[in-house]
Design a protein that fits this description.
The complex is a heterodimer of chains A (612) and B (352).
Chain A lengths: L14 H12 L5 H21 L7 E6 L6 E6 L6 H15 L5 H4 L3 H10 L5 E9 L6 E6 L5 E6 L6 E8 L9 H12 L6 E5 L2 E4 L6 H4 L8 H12 L6 E5 L5 E7 L12 E5 L2 E7 L10 E7 L15 H24 L1 H21 L1 H7 L4 E4 L2 E4 H4 L5 E4 L2 H13 L4 E3 L5 H11 L5 E3 L10 E2 L2 H6 L1 H11 L4 E7 L7 E5 L1 H15 L2 H15 L4 E6 L3 H6 L8 H15 L6 H25 L4
Parallel strand pairs in A: 1-7, 11-13, 16-17, 16-18, 20-22
Antiparallel strand pairs in A: 1-2, 2-6, 3-4, 3-6, 4-5, 7-8, 9-10, 10-13, 11-12, 14-15, 19-20, 21-22
Helix pairs in contact in A: 2-5, 3-5, 9-10, 10-11, 11-14, 16-20, 17-18, 20-21
Chain B lengths: L7 H10 L4 H16 L3 H17 L3 H17 L6 H15 L7 H17 L5 H14 L2 H13 L9 H15 L2 H12 L10 H13 L3 H15 L6 H14 L1 H16 L4 H19 L22 H23 L3 H8 L1
């Protein structure tokens, strides 16, 4: 856009507009002015460290005096300080920035530029900012006074001042909260818990140290293993939760490290991931979700880094190649620790898996080497109850259903036959079960279709087959129009009179037919065409249990007149029990059947006088 | 988890917590059963809205279509009871994928388009969406000139609340130009998307594979390689993008076949119960091409196939696998061509 032959003009700074952007659109809360001032202090100290080359120790001093609207706050650092040209530079930077609205915070990473923006955020809580600064490089001390309308004055001060910067804020009406001692203490710790320099908070003659001396495991997260109780205590203090276990995090470059605290309770797959991330020792985000892989939802992390780029609000990170690499490396650290546990500390792994099986399964689906190492501990629901896969896989082939619906159809019957069937219907389970033979070649898994459970039923004898031939044929013809066939078998438990199984196509076809009945003409016709293509494969079976005394009687030739109604009613009942949608014809059948049975019941009771 | 014992509210709450996929759909379907059993129309409508959403964007367009059919029927039977805005949006999603089912005839599809046109007009929306969808559907039929004519109409009309977002529309244009085989035009149309000036939840995810082959043909492999990596990150792990995962296999077959095999193994399982025949066809066709390529290599490959795959026991014979996937792809292409009345898809597969 810049044309060389044109003069460049700058927009006038519209400070109130800027402040509006900052407070209403950019920062999540005005309290971030504290973070910004701390950041300014740290940047100044870092710059002075580089300048003075040793023999220098940075510190930050915060002092609050008086309370409510009369309160003032002083934040002081002994960093590099600013000279006059640098003050003009940051003011110019703000001017330049104002036309780019939010973008500038992301592009502008120079110390001076950020310094100005940080200072601006103070207008959210104060109408009056005074900064006294003495550059370590010499020159006179300076006083800068700024007003939110964009006017400011710069004054040179007499005398000799120690190098560093002091910022004075006066509480603006409505901002009393941000000048309260207790809040200040909490927030300073919140932002600066990991700062390697002491922060002091002074009020009413009491002086306290906000942050503990930087623990050794911040430099080298591996050392955390040797300081278990301290790390857990620190986790409780910073994250406000009590943890029992953690995994140290690090990347190969050493530029990102952290502690992944294992959540002491099970969490939902969709729960928000709120990791706390410190960038160059300062808290940037309490809600970073994208710094760990999706599967790692069983941990809450403290992470410190100096290699990621924060977004404009400095509260999240840009999704870029670097973030992806960090995420992958951190994920690897967690994965390796879990794999190490499998080998050396299986009890610890077991207790993690018992709470966070879903997280482990999510990872196992993505990574077969991980799956292979931890699979024995993963729990699965089966007709024998919830059991670890290591135990289930002893049975070969291992049968599983692909959907909850299929499992639901057969679970009672399968367990009564002592048949082991695993429920593959819950998220990740069917995928993991079908992958099992790839990680353990000795195991065979096989998807079980509902009708296959009948393979374990006992056939009726040839004599019975003969005796019931007519009855079965009749029953079959009754259900033919519903694409359902009738079979006689013996199976446990005998209390179950019938078992209704249907193929996936059949289930799909039923739903389609039901929708067709209520839909518009154009769509009904479409559903008809789609249905026709699956109808051939759509069949259902109603197994009648001859172990059940009532069923045995019903199929006896003596009752053949009642059989059609009995079959129809048991069919409708099976549909209702299975929550299958019933079409109009079936509903009509049910109504007719109930009346029929009432009639029969009354006739019978009449003929016996009501006391059979 | 005892599904049968759960109330409608519990099922929905559980479903909201799950990522889109089979497990989520099962919970929603159970919620539908519970709502229907109780005769609760509003709950039945709500749960089906979620099925339409999840089904459309996670590889179950048939389930979405069935749920939508029920919704539209109930909408007509109960005037003023349900919100029309989301329902009309769902109509668009259904039309996006309707041509993928060869069993649905051209007349039936035309009838739906006309029905959509009337409904949109009744709610005060312009016929731009109608022409936009005609353009889409003609393109899916392989009638590119007819599609072009509709595009010309679309471009003279103003967007409205029923229009896809600008990034999606631009992407449609890119897809159309790619179908025409216009490499330069495809790249030019994709430029604002690739430069990041236009984006949304699915763009540039679905755009990137459209420019890979044109770039390669124009001798710009370096750019293409870089884009392929980026694009694959975006479609990774989401079963909605089976079509594009197939195209990544296709591109990698030309540039890095071993990596292509890795992508195949990653998605073969989700392709098996994917409900969109066209997405499966493209995945199968590129997989066939990959295996033909691997058959020419001197090393022996052991392909990882999930339990239950028909070729489970031939996992070491790539020539056989090539044949299996080729047949599967052509079976779909032939059905589509028969419905469409041309040879667009068989010719497309032969050209791959």
């Amino acid at each position: 856009m810049n044309n060389q032959t044109q003069d460049t003009y700058r927009f006038q700074v519209n400070l109130s507009g800027m402040i509006n952007i900052l407070s209403n659109h950019l920062y999540s809360s005005p309290k971030v002015f504290l973070r910004e001032l701390l950041q300014n202090g740290i940047d100044a100290i870092t710059a002075r460290q580089a300048y003075s080359q040793g023999g220098y120790e940075g510190r930050i001093h915060v002092e609050v005096s008086r309370s409510s609207t009369g309160a003032t706050l002083l934040i002081e650092d002994n960093g590099i300080g600013l000279d006059e040209s640098e003050i003009h530079e940051f003011l110019a930077m703000i001017g330049q920035s104002s036309k780019r609205s939010e973008d500038f915070l992301q592009t502008n990473t120079s110390f001076i530029g950020r310094f100005g923006i940080g200072l601006l955020s103070c207008f959210m809580v104060s109408d009056d900012i005074v900064m006294l600064t003495q550059s370590a490089k010499g020159g006179p001390a300076l006083e800068w006074r700024g007003k939110p309308d964009g006017t400011y004055t710069i004054r040179r001060l007499e005398g000799i001042h120690a190098a560093g910067t002091k910022v004075f804020l006066r509480c603006k009406e409505g901002s009393e909260l941000y000048f309260e001692e207790g809040n200040l203490q909490e927030w300073l710790f919140h932002y600066g818990a990991l700062l390697p320099y002491p922060i002091q908070l002074v009020s009413n003659q009491t002086t306290r140290l906000i942050n503990p001396p930087s623990p050794p495991w911040v430099k080298d997260p591996q050392l955390a293993r040797k300081h278990r109780s301290e790390v857990l205590a620190f986790g409780r203090q910073v994250l406000g939760e009590t943890f029992r276990d953690f995994i140290p995090l690090h990347t190969a470059s050493g530029r990102t490290g952290g502690i992944a605290f294992i959540l002491p309770q099970a969490v939902n797959l969709g729960a928000k991931r709120n990791h706390r991330v410190y960038l160059k020792h300062m808290l940037v985000s309490e809600a970073a979700g994208n710094i760990l892989p999706d599967w790692a939802f069983f941990v809450k992390c403290l992470i410190w880094t100096d290699e990621l780029q924060p977004t404009a609000s400095r509260e999240h990170f840009y999704e870029n190649v670097q973030l992806e690499q960090v995420r992958e490396e951190l994920g690897n650290t967690i994965r390796q620790e879990l794999m190490r546990m499998a080998e050396y500390d299986p009890d610890r792994l077991q207790s993690i898996i018992s709470l966070h099986a879903l997280s482990m399964k999510a990872l196992a689906v993505e990574d077969s080497s991980f799956y292979s190492i931890i699979h024995e501990w993963l729990p699965f629901e089966s007709s024998f109850g919830t059991r670890p896969l290591g135990e289930l896989k002893q049975q070969s082939p291992l049968y599983f259903t692909a959907t909850l619906d299929e499992y639901r159809q057969i679970t009672h019957v399968a367990s009564a036959q002592s048949m082991l069937v695993v429920n593959g219907g819950y998220i990740y389970d069917a995928e993991l079960l079908s992958l099992l033979p790839l990680i353990d070649p000795d195991v065979q898994t096989e998807r079980l279709l509902p009708e296959e459970v009948s393979l374990s039923f006992t056939d009726i004898t040839p004599q019975e087959r003969l005796d019931y031939y007519e009855s079965v044929r009749l029953a079959d013809s009754v259900l033919q129009k519903f694409r359902c066939q009738v079979q006689l078998r013996r199976f446990k438990p005998e209390e179950i009179p019938v078992l209704y199984t249907l193929s996936q196509e059949s289930a799909q076809w039923r739903v389609m037919e039901a929708a067709k009945e209520v839909s518009t003409d154009a769509l009904s016709s479409v559903l008809g065409s789609l249905g026709a293509s699956i109808k051939d494969a759509a069949y259902a079976t109603l197994y009648f249990n001859m172990n059940n005394p009532v069923i045995a009687r019903a199929f006896h030739p003596a009752h053949i007149a009642m059989l059609p109604s009995i079959v129809e009613m048991l069919y409708c009942n099976a549909l209702m029990m299975g929550h299958y949608p019933m079409n109009r014809q079936e509903t009509a059948l049910l109504n007719k059947g109930i009346i029929q049975f009432i009639d029969w019941g009354m006739t019978a009771s009449h003929s016996t006088g009501g006391d059979e | 988890m005892n599904l049968t014992g759960m109330s409608y509210e519990e099922l929905m709450e559980e479903a909201y917590d799950l990522p889109g996929g089979k497990a989520k759909l099962e919970l929603l379907e159970q919620a539908v059963r519970v709502a229907d059993a109780a005769g609760d129309l509003d709950q039945g409508f709500e749960a089906r809205s979620e099925i339409v959403d999840t089904g459309s964007f996670h590889g179950y367009p048939m389930k979405a279509l069935v749920a939508f059919s029920w919704q539209l029927g109930q909408y007509d039977k109960n005037p003023d009871r349900f919100d029309s805005f989301t329902l009309l949006w769902s109509y668009k999603w259904v039309l996006d994928r309707i041509t993928s089912f060869a069993d649905i005839s051209r007349v039936q599809i035309e009838n739906l388009l006309e029905d959509m046109k009337i409904r949109f007009a009744a709610e005060g929306y312009s016929s731009r969406s109608y022409h936009y969808y005609r353009a889409h559907i003609f393109a899916e039929f392989g009638e590119l000139d007819n599609s072009q004519a509709e595009w010309d109409i679309v471009q003279t009309m103003d967007r409205d609340e029923m229009s896809d977002c600008p990034a999606c529309e631009q992407n449609r244009l890119v897809e159309f130009l790619a179908k025409r085989g216009d490499d330069e035009g495809t790249l030019k149309a994709a430029e604002p998307i690739l430069k990041g000036k236009m984006s949304c939840g699915e763009v540039p995810h679905v755009t990137i594979t459209k420019v890979l082959f044109p770039l390669l043909r124009l001798g710009r492999q370096q750019e293409a390689d870089k884009l392929q990596k980026k694009g694959f990150r975006l479609v990774k792990g989401n079963r909605d993008f089976l079509y594009h995962q197939g195209e990544h296999i296709g591109y990698l077959t030309l540039t890095d076949p071993i990596k292509a095999l890795g992508v195949f193994e990653e998605y073969i399982a989700s392709s098996l119960d994917h409900e969109n025949p066209v997405d499966r066809m493209i995945f199968n066709a590129y997989s066939a091409k990959l295996f033909r390529q691997l058959a020419g290599e001197s090393i022996r490959f052991q392909v990882k196939l999930p339990a239950g795959h028909p070729c489970e026991h031939q996992s070491g014979e790539v020539t056989l696998l090539a044949k299996h996937f080729q047949q599967a792809a052509f079976a779909t292409a032939e059905k589509l061509d028969k419905r469409n009345g041309n040879d667009y898809y068989t010719a497309l597969l032969q050209r791959l």
